């Protein structure tokens, strides 16, 4: 179960993710219908629908995982939806460091290249109407205060 923002249109992954993160951080700090604090979880996910050009806004949807103890009756909040996922398959590329805007496309392209010619590439294309990287997700596992050994991932979701 995931707490999720509405789509955020921005030219910058970093800025779009920051905007969504702050909305979700307020939600888990008690700015919700129950005034209830919720434990922070990892990863923070940012789903990206890329723009058509380099100077156009992409769409970013940021999500936090809802801890099990809050899943039976999660609080609602303006601008936040809670979604239950079914089984989810993802192809993953892991990378480190603090993510810059310039990293996201490079890492997504590297994942796409690494999958080229595999059954996974075919499954992803089938799930995304022939496009391997139409929509993808960035998963960030570390607190902003952790400087070493940062773990990030690019995810391409697909159906089996």
Automatic annotation (TrEMBL):
InterPro entries: Reg_factor_effector_dom_sf (IPR011256), SOUL_heme-bd (IPR006917)
Highest rank taxon of the organism: Eukaryota
Similarity field: Belongs to the HEBP family.
Protein name as it appears in the record: SOUL heme-binding family protein
């Amino acid at each position: 179960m995931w707490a999720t923002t509405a789509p955020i249109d921005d030219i910058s992954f970093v800025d779009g993710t920051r905007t969504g993160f702050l909305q979700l951080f307020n939600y888990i700090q008690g700015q919700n219908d129950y005034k209830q604090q919720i434990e922070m979880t990892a990863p923070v996910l940012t789903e990206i629908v890329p723009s058509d050009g380099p100077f156009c806004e992409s769409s970013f949807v940021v999500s936090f995982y809802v801890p099990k103890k809050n899943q039976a009756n999660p609080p609602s909040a303006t601008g936040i939806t809670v979604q239950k996922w079914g089984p989810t398959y993802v192809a993953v590329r892991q990378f480190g460091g603090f993510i810059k805007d310039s990293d996201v496309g490079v890492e997504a392209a590297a994942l796409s290249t690494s999958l080229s010619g595999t059954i996974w590439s075919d499954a992803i294309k089938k799930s995304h109407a022939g496009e391997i990287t139409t929509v993808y997700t960035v998963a960030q596992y570390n607190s902003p205060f952790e400087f070493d050994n940062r773990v990030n991932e690019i995810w391409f979701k697909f159906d089996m």
